[in-house]
Design goal:
Elements: H1 2-7, E1 11-15, E2 20-22, E3 32-37, E4 40-44, E5 47-52, E6 57-58, H2 60-63, E7 92-95, E8 99-104, H3 108-117, H4 119-156, H5 160-164, H6 175-185
């Protein structure tokens, strides 16, 4: 299966330092990408949320679409948290050093062709992706409940000034700073 998968990565793409693989707001990459060399930063606003390097994969969820079980674009990238709900990229992916990317499997037909020969492997990978999605969803839900509870507590105590200091320029609450504030308060 891995040999067949790697041989399907027939196209090579080169990025120079500073080049974007994807800019925030662009349609999400619907292809399977293996980083052969170099490093890429996944950035949300001005923060690097993940560094990718040799051997990392982008688009595993696209490869493993869950066969009309859902049209949720987040399934196209189950191994990342990079999508907005409309299928547009929620992040930018930018080369921080010269990169060589191997790409392929960019159409559903390519995926179906590979899947026909490796049904068991695809079933195992789909199960793995579902488990990762459930784990990530559960972690997010727990974190959001904790943050909501802390915000309510600070509002009750009329500590709005402290809370407003946590907003970043994008209007999003800096969850790390909120976590520190909650720990200080405990």
């Amino acid at each position: 299966f891995l040999v067949a998968l790697s041989s399907s990565l027939s196209r090579q793409r080169t990025l120079l330092t500073g080049d974007y693989l994807m800019k925030r707001g662009e349609e999400y990459l619907r292809e399977f990408i293996l980083i052969a060399s170099g490093t890429l930063h996944v950035r949300l606003d001005k923060h690097t949320i993940k560094t990718l390097g040799r051997g990392d994969i982008i688009g595993r969820g696209w490869l493993l679409q869950l066969k009309n079980e859902s049209t949720d674009p987040a399934l196209y990238s189950a191994d990342t948290d990079w999508l907005a709900s409309d299928g547009k990229g929620a992040v930018s992916i930018r080369a921080t050093s010269p990169c060589v990317l191997l790409t392929g499997l960019s159409s559903p037909r390519d995926i179906q062709k590979l899947e026909r020969g490796y049904k068991v492997d695809f079933k195992l990978l789909r199960a793995e992706v579902r488990a990762e999605l459930m784990d990530e969803t559960e972690r997010r839900a727990i974190a959001m409940k904790g943050i909501a509870k802390a915000v309510r507590r600070f509002k009750k105590r009329k500590q709005i000034k402290r809370l407003s200091m946590l907003r970043m320029s994008s209007g999003v609450v800096d969850t790390e700073a909120l976590r520190r504030l909650v720990e200080e308060d405990a």
